[in-house]
Amino acid sequence: MTDKITRITDFDALDPLRDQYRGSLISTRLLREELARHHVALLCIDLQYLDAARGHGVFADAAASGVPLAAQEYYFHKLETEVLPNVRKLQDAFRARGLEVIHTRIQSMTRDGRDRSPGHKRLNLHAAPGSKEAEFVELVAPVGDEILLNKTASGVFNSTNLHYLLRNLDISSLFMVGVYTNECVSTAVRDACDLGFYVTLIEDGCTTVTPELQQATITTIRDRYARVMSAAEAIAEINRARQAS
Asked: Which pTM does this prediction carry?
């Protein structure tokens, strides 16, 4: 595993366009201005019982889930000991600053899921309204009147009115957390970048089912589609902006 990660990292270091792309991402000065003007939001992706809780949804029957048991153990260990606590810390920091915390989840509009995307139908992925699968994991659930968007596809920008809402809210910069890093999170990062948003991916605020997939996705995104930083680094930026304002 170490050799694989080293090779990926070495390839990234040789990327001839890395500096050019990095220069187009959000600067520290611009971030401070965005934070001061409340143009920044935290986007929390699919942290629900369907795919982020042991013994529920996709993992209700661990042996039949299609995910090897060792991969499930890695995923839930990372989720429970690192990702969910970090997401909650970020949510608290954003809330204390009066910044938007926005949540997405997989949920159909109909009980039988007939409105789901073709992809979710093929995968038999379904969280009906009012179901346990559609509930958020309690630690990171929405608070008050925080915005919640339901989707039945990987891409939240393609399957909801998120872009319209962000423009209405005058949001131009997004911090992203959630699951899975290589699927719904990565899709959101790339779409947001293409739409002109400044994106920051929190590397210890997201995870997937293997360390190799996690590392490969982070390496692909870093300094190309988004800044990548830790939850602690992001919270420190938010706190510095709060003190300066």
From this structure: 0.89
